[in-house]
Design goal:
Layout lengths: L3 E9 L5 E10 L4 E5 L6 H9 L6 E6 L2 E2 L10 E4 L11 H12 L3 H15 L14 H13 L5 E5 L7 H18 L2 E6 L2 H7 L2 E6 L2 E6 L1 H6 L4 H6 L6 E8 L2 E4 L2 E4 L10 E7 L4 E3 L9 E10 L4 E6 L19 E5 L10 E6 L4 E4 L21
Parallel strand pairs: 3-8, 3-9, 6-7, 7-8
Antiparallel strand pairs: 1-2, 1-4, 4-5, 9-10, 11-12, 11-14, 12-13, 14-20, 15-19, 16-17, 16-19, 17-18
Helix pairs in contact: 2-3, 2-4, 3-4
């Protein structure tokens, strides 16, 4: 096992495009760290530099404390799992898994033993005689994982390995990957654009936007304490609502109501703010409370069995688009309500806001105004 250290690493392409600029962050020994973000944000470039598939323009990249800038991919002791499996079609699953050992000149008996061990670990020991075309997508991905595991590498690098699978199989494979990491404990850097994958798999998650790592934290910290509007909008489904508000005398003016700010905001500066409200921050009320309730005009409901999403409007408040968040109904807010909600399309109902779940952001920079959220950021581009 080993750490992965980016020390002011930069990558500039021949046309002058800055792919990575002064990247500095560390994946701890045995950690499962995920790079997540929209297409083109730089996550795959960062991964490819670790694999040795992209040259580093400046800075230093270390694996296990050893500088690897000039090392060829085979000399880095890393295993890469691709999105498209990259299996040899003419080889059986057994031959695909054992191929790295064949290249290393491992004896036939030792190779057979290790292939059988890995196949048993992945639950594919009854598929070893089949070729890739005879396997399902999930089975092929297990074979690709087996080929990586059998090398006993210092580091696993995974580039969107589940994106070609259907929804049900992705859920299953996420669980398998989590169990596999707990069992093997190998340092893993994993790239995905799927926030659900990131939040359920990663011990820590790095959220990237246009090459910058906006925040690295545990999934819970990302959800509860986003450092800016991009992280807040990207993490969470349904996405966070954003509305304009105003702080005055330690209170938040929101539409026609004035609500006392929680102590965690400290002496929040007066003025215009961007207010972030996750769907679960809204509470359905049986009756309105003077000065504390918003009157919601429900437009659309989505009943999901255990919960209901209600899209509604409030006079004086308009939901705005921020970052990656696309407002499904222009100007409408979304609330996550219980399965027995009274909300129906065309109805009106009073709702309150859980002030402990409120987020405030600077309307100019997008930075969080939470008194404890202004942590220094690690940066990477690519």
């Amino acid at each position: 096992m080993a750490t992965i250290e980016f020390d002011n690493v930069s990558k500039v392409f021949s046309d002058g495009t800055i792919a990575v600029k002064d990247a500095s962050f560390t994946v701890a020994d045995g950690e499962f760290l995920i790079l997540v973000g929209p297409s083109g944000c730089g996550k795959t470039t960062a991964l490819r530099m670790v694999a040795g598939l992209e040259e580093i323009t400046s800075g230093e990249l270390r694996i296990g404390g050893r500088r690897v800038n000039e090392l060829e991919p085979p000399d880095r002791d890393v295993a890469l799992v691709f999105q498209n499996y990259a299996l040899y079609p003419h080889m059986t699953a057994r031959e695909n898994i054992g191929f790295p050992l064949r290249v290393q000149g491992v004896s036939r008996a030792d190779k057979e033993r290790r292939v059988n061990e890995v196949a048993a670990l992945l639950g594919i020991d009854d598929l070893l005689a089949r070729r890739p075309r005879e396997l399902s997508g999930g089975q092929r991905q297990r074979v690709a994982m087996g080929r990586a595991i059998i090398r006993h590498p210092q580091v696993f690098l995974m580039d969107e390995p589940l994106s070609n699978l259907d929804a049900k199989l992705r859920v299953q494979m996420r669980g398998e990957l989590a169990k596999l990491h707990r069992r093997l404990g190998v340092t893993t850097l994993y790239v995905t654009h799927d926030q659900t994958e990131a939040m359920t798999l990663g011990q820590r998650v790095a959220v990237l936007d246009r090459g910058v790592i906006e925040q690295i934290a545990t999934p819970k910290e990302l959800y509860d304490r986003p450092v800016n509007t991009f992280v807040a909008s990207f993490i969470g489904s349904p996405a966070m609502n954003f509305v304009h508000g105003r702080v005055a005398h330690d209170c938040l003016e929101l539409g026609d109501v004035t609500l006392e700010l929680p102590r965690r905001f400290g002496a929040a500066r007066a003025g215009e703010v961007l207010v972030g409200l996750r769907p679960e921050a809204f509470r359905e009320q049986s009756a309105p409370e003077e000065g504390l309730s918003l009157e919601a005009s429900v437009e659309v409901t989505e009943e999901l069995g255990n919960e209901t999403y209600a899209y509604f409007r409030v006079a004086g408040l308009e939901s705005i688009e921020v970052g990656e968040r696309a407002v499904e109904l222009a100007g409408a807010l979304i609330a996550r309500l219980g399965p027995r909600t009274r909300a129906q399309p065309g109805s009106r109902m009073p709702v309150s806001i859980d002030m402990e779940a409120v987020h405030l952001f600077d309307p100019g920079s997008g930075a969080s105004l939470h008194s404890a959220a202004a942590a220094p950021r690690e940066r990477v581009v690519g």
